[in-house]
Amino acid sequence: MPPAIEDTDTAAGPPPSDDDPTTQVGETAVVSEAGEEGKLRTIMNLLKRCMSVKDIANIRLSLPASLMYPAPNLEYWNYIGRADTFVEINSHDDPIERMLAVIRFTFAKDLRFIRGGIVKPYNSVLGEHFRCSWVAAPAPRNDKGEYAPETHLVEGSGALSSTASSRPASVKSGKSGKSGKSVKSSKAAASTSQVDLAGTGADADENEEIEPGSNKIVFLTEQISHHPPVSAFWYSAPDAGVEAYGVDQVGARVSGTSIRVFPGERNNGIFVNLPQRKEEYQISHPIAAVSGLLRGSIYASISDSTCITIRGEGAEQPPLRAIIEYKEESWLGRARFAIEGVVYRCKAGSEEESWTKVKQVPKDAVVVTLDGSWRKKVNYKLATEKEARTLLDLDVLDLTPKRVRPLDSQDPLESRRIWGPVTSALLKKDYGTATKEKQTIEQRQRDKAAERKKTGEEFQSRFFELETPDGRPVLTEAGKKALEEEHNAVAP
């Protein structure tokens, strides 16, 4: 989860002041203009102000545009790090392999933090929405049966394996993974598109050919509340038989010299649904921390556990459940980002469904063990085998490029249309213009909020219902139509 400190009150109140305390998390070319001394002073002011606050996610602070990451929050904050890990989930008939595929997707969703670091994108305005898509097929496997993609790799990493035993149809790239080049490296992307920055993932190359057999994932998200900030999201890949949905809301507070980030009240994780199998996987969010603030070397660490629970009438009985435990970092030495985990069989409705620690699980219930680093390589071992295998090597993976409709085809409330002037000015390092454009957007939102208050009108979201029972969003008819339109759209 992101350190979602609200950067300004865009719903009510006086215009923000550029002299307010600000936060900067990330080290991009845009932020570096502030200078190291200025950044440290900014961080210290923020920590002083937030020290006694229970949840700083709701603090109304104003950041000058020069300290913002030039990308909309709804675009930045998505869970498709590697599209091939998502479309693969339903392709496995074996329940253990399906669970391993969900775990692979779970680690891959955080790839943007590895490729792009911790940043502060623009806060979403009420009613803002973002739509895009990805195209991918399940990645090939090597001779050990391990996940071994050959496209969208980090520049210079080389192929994951030279002995791939199968290669399903996938997006053709101008540069093969075997050459050690990604379709678009993060370095190249940063200067070629409006928001092709390392953390957001590049836009797909218009010249890429899509082979038959690939699957399309469409994504729709909308800001349904501003105080507190809440967004609903939906991913749909009907040809692959998989969808995912949920509600994003985070809380944050200062703990020592770190900012701890945790799920908000309405955030019950990510729900991955396989409609044809009548299975739903609930992936809980762990607690994260933004550390290294005083040293100027900012990074994310994760503690607590992620649990993956299977429900649905089609789920195998007794159902499988996974616990991924993120190990606490030592105060001394370098961060290791270590994890350990288990997949075990549990009794539905029993206390076994509430376990969050690996040590709670009896050895005779374990079917898979996991270890490694959530930033590097994760390994797994079946209880029936002696040799461990690689589940995912994050060190060599780049994000899957996304496909976004041209600006002239977008709705006025879509993220890139709203924030385009700010982004354009930031990438030109025209911070004065960027700040003015940002303030114009904020004032427009205040005016709308004031008008609603005057007339007694309540805000109505467009694509999602405002109520999110059990953390599951509900699509409106307009939302269902938007997903269908995105799925049927001709790739740009």
Question: How would you describe this structure to a colleague?
Answer:
The protein is 20% helix and 23% strand. It is globular, with a radius of gyration of 22 Å. Helix 7 (415-427) runs antiparallel to helix 8 (431-455). The strands form three sheets. Strands 1-4-5-6-9-10-13-14-15-16-17-18 form a twelve-stranded antiparallel beta sheet, sandwiched between helices. Strands 7-8-11-12 form a four-stranded antiparallel beta sheet, with no helix packed on it. Strands 2-3 form a two-stranded antiparallel sheet. With 492 residues, the chain is of the alpha+beta class.
> Strand portion, in percent?
15-25%
Order of helices and strands: HHHHHEEEHEEEEEEEEEEEEEEEHHH
The rough form would be described as globular
Q: Please describe the biggest sheet, giving its number of strands, its sense, and whether it closes into a barrel.
A: 12 strands, antiparallel
Instruction: State the distance separating the first and last CA atoms.
Output: 30 Å
Helix fraction, binned, reads 10-25%
Average pLDDT: 81
